[in-house]
Write a structure and sequence with these properties.
This protein is of the alpha/beta class and 556 residues long. It has a four-stranded mixed sheet with strand order 2-8-10-9. The chain has a three-stranded antiparallel sheet with strand order 7-14-13. The chain has a two-stranded parallel sheet with strand order 1-11. Helix 9 packs across helix 11. The protein is globular, with a radius of gyration of 29 Å. The relative contact order is 0.09. The C terminus is likely disordered.
C-alpha cells in the first residue's frame, strides 16, 4: 500500500487572481465587423461592472442579430437549383446578388453558415445536406498543377513572416493579379552567384555550363516527361527560381533541375533588356540603385527611419514607377510582399555587410531587419544568418513566467548578454477606437495589456491572446533591464524586447512602461519611481497588475 501524504492547504498562500490567456506566437487581426460587435457581456454576474456603458460602445450585439432559418434553407435550395438544374457557376450566382453570397471568404458565406447548424429537411427540397452536390468550382482539379498553384498563391498571405493561406494576422486583400514573368537571370548568372552549394549534386559545382547547354532534350520516358511538365509549370510562375529551390519542389537533384532549366530557358533566349531589368537584384548582393550611385549618377538621400504608413502590397502590371503603384504614389519603398518582386527598383536596397552588428549597416540604421534573398552578403535567410534577423526567425531566449514583484512576472532562465532577444509582443491587433471598447474591462479588473506603435497607430492587446512577453513588469529609474524596439521585419512592423544590460539566470525582467502609460492610464508610480501622476489611481493593487501601454517612442 502506498503511503498517504496529508498536506495542510492553509500553509500555502493562494495564487494571485489570473485571467486566462490563449497562448499564441502570432498576433490576430480583429476585423472591422468584429470590432463593432459585442460577442458576450463580460462580468455579467458582477454588479460593479458598468455593463450598460460598456455595451453602448458597440454598434451590434451578436445575441440580438436576427436569423431566419427558413430563409437560409430557401436560399440554399435556390443556389442548388441554379447550379444543378440551370448549370450556373457559383461565381455567376454570387454576381446575381439574389441571395446571400455563397462564399465570401474561408470563414464566411451562405455555405459556411449553413454548416454551423443542423440541416432542415422540408417537403419539396432537392438537397439532403448543406452542400447537396453544389459544385465547388473554386477548387482546381487534382491534375491541374497550374490551377492548384495559382489558386494557393492568390489566397496565401504575401508576408514573408507568415506565408500561410488565409492567415489571421494580416488583412491585405487577396489580389487575383499574378504577374506573368519572363526569365531575367541566365543560367550562367545563377551558377556564378554567391551562395553555398546545397549538396554534392548542387548546380553551383558545375564547371562547364556549355556542356549542359548542349545536352539532348528530355526523353519520352514517363518520369522525364512528368518532371519537365511540372518544372515547366513551376518556372512559368517563378522563372527565376534557383535550382536549389526547385529541386525541393520536384524531389530531384539540383543538377538535374539545372539541366531542365537550361533546356526550357536557354541563355540565348533571355533578352538583354530583361537582364537589365534584373539589375536591382544582383548576384553579388549589391542593389541596382547602389551600382547606379557608383557609376556617377545623383545619389538619393537616405529615407528616414521606420515609416509607419502601412500600405497594402502593390499588385499591378508594369513597373512601380507610375501612378498605378500605390507605393510610388505614397513615396514609400516596395516591400517583399509586393507582387513586383525583390528585383523591383523601389525595394529597400540590400546591405553589403558581413555581420550587420552595428549602425554601419544600413538595415540596422534604418531600424529594419535584413531581407532574405536581398541581403545576400550577410547570409540573411540562410544557415548562418546575421544577428539582424532574430525577430523574423523568432530566435529568442527562453524566459519563465512565475510569481514576480507584482503578480506574475517574467524571469531569465539563463545568463543573458546585452542585446539578447526575448521575443516579440503579440496579441489582438486593434485600432485606437476599438481599444477604447476595452476601457471598462481594464478599469474593472485592473489589467492593461495594450501596447501601441506610435500615436494613431494600431494597438496590440494581449489580454486574451499573447505570449510570455505580456508578463514583463514595470521598473523605472534605472531598474529596468529590458528595452522595447520597433523594427520593420520583411515589411511588417513588430515590437521586440531586448536586454539593456547583462542579466543573470533567475533575475526578473523589467520594462520601463514610459511616461505615456502613466499619464493616459493613471496609476501610482512604483518600483523606484518617485511621485504620483496627477489624477492617478491610488489603489496600488490595480496598478501592480497592469502591463505596458506605451508608445515604443516613449519607452526609455
Amino acid at each position: 500500500m502506498l503511503p498517504v501524504v496529508v498536506l495542510d492547504a492553509s500553509l500555502f498562500p493562494p495564487h494571485a487572481p489570473y485571467e486566462s490567456c490563449s497562448p499564441s506566437s502570432r498576433s490576430i487581426l480583429v476585423s472591422e465587423g468584429e470590432r463593432d460587435t459585442a460577442k458576450f457581456l463580460p462580468y455579467a454576474d458582477e454588479p460593479t461592472f458598468p455593463a450598460k456603458r460598456h455595451l453602448a460602445k458597440f454598434a451590434h450585439l451578436e445575441w440580438e442579430e436576427k436569423f431566419d432559418p427558413d430563409s437560409e434553407m430557401i436560399q440554399l435550395e435556390t443556389a442548388w437549383r441554379l447550379c444543378m438544374a440551370h448549370k450556373l457557376s457559383l461565381n455567376d450566382i454570387n454576381r446575381m446578388s439574389i441571395i446571400k453570397a455563397i462564399r465570401t471568404s474561408h470563414n464566411s458565406g451562405l455555405l459556411l453558415d449553413g454548416q454551423q447548424r443542423d440541416f432542415l429537411h422540408w417537403p419539396g427540397a432537392s438537397q439532403i445536406n448543406v452542400k447537396g452536390g453544389l459544385l465547388e468550382n473554386w477548387v482546381p482539379q487534382e491534375d491541374d498543377l497550374h490551377g492548384r498553384l495559382t489558386s494557393m498563391l492568390r489566397i496565401s498571405c504575401p508576408i514573408i513572416n507568415c506565408l500561410l493561406p488565409m492567415c489571421s494576422t494580416h488583412a491585405y486583400p487577396f489580389s487575383s493579379y499574378l504577374p506573368s514573368k519572363k526569365p531575367r537571370i541566365t543560367g550562367e548568372s545563377m551558377r556564378l552567384s554567391e551562395g553555398n552549394p546545397c549538396g554534392q549534386d548542387c548546380f553551383r559545382l558545375v564547371a562547364d555550363i556549355e556542356r549542359y547547354e548542349s545536352l539532348p532534350p528530355p526523353s519520352d520516358e514517363v518520369d522525364q516527361v512528368s518532371l519537365a511538365d511540372n518544372l515547366s509549370v513551376i518556372l512559368g510562375i517563378a522563372p527565376d527560381l534557383f535550382p536549389c529551390q526547385s529541386s525541393v519542389l520536384c524531389f530531384k537533384s539540383c543538377k538535374e533541375i539545372f539541366v531542365k532549366h537550361l533546356q526550357l530557358f536557354p541563355d540565348n533566349v533571355i533578352l538583354p533588356l530583361d537582364r537589365e531589368l534584373s539589375t536591382a537584384l544582383s548576384t553579388d548582393g549589391e542593389s541596382g540603385t547602389e551600382r547606379e550611385t557608383k557609376q556617377g549618377k545623383k545619389k538619393k538621400k537616405n529615407r528616414p527611419l521606420v515609416q509607419y504608413c502601412m500600405l497594402d502590397p502593390c499588385a499591378h502590371p508594369g513597373p512601380c514607377t507610375t501612378a498605378t503603384c500605390q507605393c510610388y504614389l505614397n513615396k514609400m519603398h516596395c516591400w517583399p510582399a509586393c507582387k513586383c518582386g525583390l528585383s523591383c527598383v523601389r525595394q529597400w536596397p540590400a546591405c553589403t555587410c558581413q555581420k550587420c552588428e552595428d549602425v554601419s549597416c544600413p538595415c540596422v540604421l534604418g531600424k529594419r531587419e535584413c531581407v532574405p534573398g536581398v541581403c545576400v552578403r550577410c547570409d540573411a535567410g540562410k544557415k548562418n544568418p546575421c544577428s539582424n534577423t532574430r525577430m523574423q526567425r523568432q530566435d529568442s531566449k527562453l524566459i519563465e513566467v512565475k510569481t514576480g514583484s507584482y503578480g506574475l512576472g517574467a524571469f531569465a532562465t539563463e545568463d543573458m548578454a546585452v542585446d539578447a532577444f526575448l521575443g516579440t509582443y503579440v496579441g489582438h491587433i486593434l485600432s485606437n477606437n476599438a481599444a477604447e471598447h476595452t476601457s471598462e474591462i481594464m478599469a474593472h479588473n485592473g489589467h492593461n495589456y495594450l501596447f501601441e506603435f506610435s500615436v494613431d497607430a494600431e494597438i496590440f492587446d494581449a489580454a486574451q491572446v499573447g505570449n510570455q512577453t505580456r508578463f514583463l513588469n514595470h521598473g523605472g529609474n534605472g531598474m529596468d533591464n529590458v528595452d522595447a524596439s520597433s523594427k520593420l521585419v520583411n515589411g511588417e512592423h513588430q515590437i521586440g524586447f531586448f536586454t539593456k544590460r547583462r542579466v543573470d539566470a533567475g533575475e526578473e525582467l523589467f520594462l520601463d512602461y514610459g511616461l505615456n502609460y502613466w499619464l493616459h492610464h493613471g496609476g501610482k508610480k512604483c518600483l523606484g519611481d518617485e511621485g504620483t501622476v496627477a489624477g492617478g489611481e491610488k489603489d496600488s493593487e490595480v496598478i501592480f497588475e497592469k502591463s505596458p501601454l506605451a508608445s515604443v517612442d516613449d519607452i526609455a
